[in-house]
Design brief:
The complex is a heterodimer of chains A (106) and B (461).
Chain A lengths: L2 E5 L5 E5 L6 H7 L19 E4 L1 H4 L7 H7 L9 E3 L12 E4 L6
Parallel strand pairs in A: 1-5
Antiparallel strand pairs in A: 1-2, 3-4, 3-5
Chain B lengths: L3 H8 L5 H17 L38 H11 L2 E4 L7 E4 L2 H9 L4 E2 L26 H9 L5 H20 L6 E3 H18 L6 H12 L2 H4 L5 H27 L8 H6 L11 H14 L2 H16 L1 H9 L4 H12 L4 E6 L3 E3 L2 E3 L4 E5 H4 L35 H18 E6 L4 E2 L8 E3 L1 E6 L2
Classes of the chains: A alpha+beta (106), B alpha+beta (461).
């Protein structure tokens, strides 16, 4: 079984075992990863599950919808590989992926 | 005949904004005398009918006295249960749809391609002559996105962190001046003063003149035509002209300082000045006025009424006050619960851009649609024991008060921080904040708030 690593802004790392059929946001919430608020509960409507994906994984984890792009543009810490974690379905192929958390959710 | 907005936009380069607003006001007065203006709705308070005596068609939640008379809960519960997407044909504001369940509200708020914000956020129209005011909360993409991006950084969490010490200091100075053991008005002495102080800080507005911000906000935020509030169109014009005059001066001063090579200060006007998309905003009085009004009203009424609402809630649920005193670490979660329980802005309005079927009803293209956050926040289907105030509620953050989607409240983190600091500082000073008479409420179908909340403080021993 594969793992995904979440890294907080302060450098702290959290290795989490992949369980399929859920979103990356849900996976972070289920494992109490600090720094994900997910106010809207996974509807792509609040922008508070923002994560920054490692460059080499960005193109492999699915398409960014227009709505998601708009929500990400409201985030001051937006980076080139920013995503809303509620819009990413976790699969075993993501074994080894590194996900960084922003300093704040907004 | 040319519209006022055309005249105003044309004159913008040469005539100061406040003079243009005054001219528009004069023109409006003449039109009124000639009987050419829209009739002004008049609202006289009478007890709202018991909900059980009304047919579904008769229910009119635009009544600006429902909050004051504490009837809103039974009215909205009936709509949620029997007719969650409800059409009112004959209100004083014309026909409109009410969306009252949590999930349906989320649907409308998310789908800005189906529901436009362009024509305004209140049920009624803005006063004639000021109805072409432009503000990004009432814009659709792409213009909305550009204007919001220009100002959103001022309230980004990173900057808030830097402002926290200053806000705490100012909060403490207000609280230290409060009389202990005497009856006083919490709205006036705490909620209004703290929120206008915050606004003055964000705008770099002279702190000793902060009461002006509060009074402009009150006049612009409630009026008969927009939401059934008190006040008059004349007052709105006068406040708008004063506001533009003050802020144009601040704008020009900051512009001159920047041109002279001074370092950019971190306030909303400086941010607008230094952004490519908004640097000429002062030349477009309707856009300048609209965005200032948005930031001032948005940052004022909302936080103010949550500051009062929290005190009232803890009085109505005293066991929660005890819980809070035993565990102050609950404050951040309580802040979200206060914002849900209060819901300081009752709704946002949209216009359907096409026919949309929602929960069995057909909303036609062009119809007005109100998303009643105040009802969604009490929807039993999505929120457990919704009428209870529970400071350690699980998922307290999922409330609708900030809206969802691209118009989600930009100042949400600032509001949460102001409320958190207020409660942290209150708990270190006072053992009790006792509400000693029934509060007085704002007359409005939009602003859910208080005009008076008499309290007595007990010092901490």
């Amino acid at each position: 079984m594969g793992n995904i690593t979440f890294i907080e802004k302060n450098g702290e790392q959290h290795l989490v075992a992949i369980s399929e059929d859920q979103s990356l946001m849900q996976m972070a919430m289920d494992n109490d990863i600090p720094g994900v608020d997910a106010d809207c509960g996974g509807q792509c409507a609040c922008g508070t599950c923002h994560v920054i994906i490692e460059d080499k994984w960005f193109s492999k984890i699915g398409h960014v919808s227009d709505t998601e792009t708009q929500m990400l543009e409201m985030t001051p810490e937006q980076a080139k590989t920013s995503r809303l974690s509620c819009q990413i379905s976790v699969t075993q192929e993501m074994d080894g992926m590194v996900v960084r958390l922003p300093e704040f959710q907004m | 005949m040319k519209t006022f907005s055309e005249v105003i936009e044309k004159g913008a380069q040469v005539i100061p904004g406040h003079i243009q607003i005054k001219s528009a006001h004069l023109l409006q007065k003449v039109k009124r005398k000639l009987g050419q203006s829209r009739p002004m709705p008049v609202f006289t308070e009478s007890p709202a009918a018991d909900i059980d005596t009304l047919s579904i068609e008769e229910i009119d939640v635009s009544n600006p006295f429902l909050f004051r008379q504490n009837q809103w809960q039974s009215y909205f519960k009936r709509l949620r249960d029997e007719c969650p997407v409800h059409y009112q044909k004959t209100s004083a504001f014309g026909p409109f749809w009410s969306i009252t369940r949590y999930k349906d509200i989320m649907f409308v708020d998310k789908n800005h391609q189906l529901f436009s914000a362009e024509s305004g956020i209140m049920l009624g129209d803005a006063p004639e002559g000021l109805d072409k005011i432009e503000t990004f909360i009432a814009m659709d993409p792409p213009k909305h996105d550009l204007q919001r991006q220009a100002v959103q950084n001022v309230v980004a969490p990173k900057n808030l962190k830097e402002m926290e010490a200053l806000i705490r200091k100012r909060t403490a100075s207000v609280l230290d001046r409060l009389p202990v053991g005497e009856t006083f008005d919490w709205v006036d002495k705490v909620s209004v003063d703290l929120t206008s102080m915050m606004l003055a800080t964000l705008f770099d507005f002279p702190i000793e003149q902060r009461h002006k911000l509060a009074s402009w906000s009150d006049v612009l935020g409630t009026n008969p035509e927009g939401n059934g509030g008190e006040g008059s169109t004349d007052e709105v014009f006068i406040a708008a002209a004063e506001l533009i005059k003050h802020f144009s001066l601040i704008w020009r001063e900051k512009e001159a300082k920047l041109a002279a090579g001074e370092e950019k200060s971190f306030d909303l006007i400086s941010l607008l000045l230094s952004n490519e998309n908004t640097k000429d905003m002062v030349k477009h009085p309707l856009e300048f006025l609209g965005n200032l009004a948005l930031l001032i009203v948005g940052g004022n009424d909302t936080t103010r009424n949550s500051m009062s609402g929290g005190v009232l809630a803890l009085n109505q649920f005293p066991e929660q006050f005890t819980k809070l005193k035993h565990d102050p670490s609950l404050i951040p979660n309580m802040v979200s619960e206060i914002i849900r329980w209060q819901t300081p802005l009752a709704y946002m309005r949209r216009i359907a851009k096409q026919d949309v079927e929602l929960n069995g009803q057909l909303i036609k293209k062009g119809d007005k649609v109100l998303m009643w956050y105040v009802s969604g926040n009490r929807d039993e289907r999505d929120i457990e024991q919704p009428d209870q105030f529970i400071i350690d509620r699980k998922d307290a953050r999922k409330h609708l008060s900030f809206g969802f989607g691209i118009h989600r409240c930009m100042g949400n983190r600032l509001a949460e921080m102001q409320l958190r600091i207020l409660w942290e500082e209150l708990l270190t000073r006072f053992d009790n904040i006792e509400v000693i008479e029934e509060p007085q409420y704002v007359q409005s179908n939009f602003v859910k708030g208080y005009t008076k909340l008499m309290v007595k403080l007990t010092a901490k021993v």
